[in-house]
Amino acid sequence: DAGITQSPRHKVTETGTPVTLRCHQTENHRYMYWYRQDPGHGLRLIHYSYGVKDTDKGEVSDGYSVSRSKTEDFLLTLESATSSQTSVYFCAISEETSGANVLTFGAGSRLTVL
Amino acid sequence: GESVGLHLPTLSVQEGDNSIINCAYSNSASDYFIWYKQESGKGPQFIIDIRSNMDKRQGQRVTVLLNKTVKHLSLQIAATQPGDSAVYFCAENNENDYKLSFGAGTTVTVRA
Question: Which of B9, B42, B53, B105 could be B87's S-S partner, Cβ–Cβ 3.0 to 4.6 Å?
Fold first, then answer.
């Protein structure tokens, strides 16, 4: 997954604790995304960013917030983690294009909320 | 909202045979359709895309077919290999809309 890294790759936490996942890119792409992947649901968009300090909600944004203070970093925060947020989280990036929006994904962050 | 989905959640294929993975979509206004492959423990990777004004596009060992009349998309893999074992997702997007919608995926298992 050249050019995009996620941290941490694995995390176990308890219900009610805050969690922040980080996505870092070296491609200088404008668009960044956070998806979650759960069995039977495929990939669902949580939040995305179209520039520094420009973010918008996806289809499953409740309980999540994001921040993008620099082009290269996109943070996903769970203010108070719940068991329903146990999932694998993927960050993705894409560049501005007139064609198909091809996303490049990170390796994923597996979060377990006990 | 609009949805993109796959017909079958699993597909078992004999090594060397051709694989056909299907996807039904509902948004007739989509401009592009994209196939991704996700190997175990990894993030999805781009395979091939097709614009809505095309019926067919070929890549290396893969062919994507688009039937807009019945809103159906398929990915054909020629001479399936063990390395093709993965989950395959279709996705769609509109031009100038940078959000992608994904289906639930089809798990392809290649039998030796």
Answer: B105
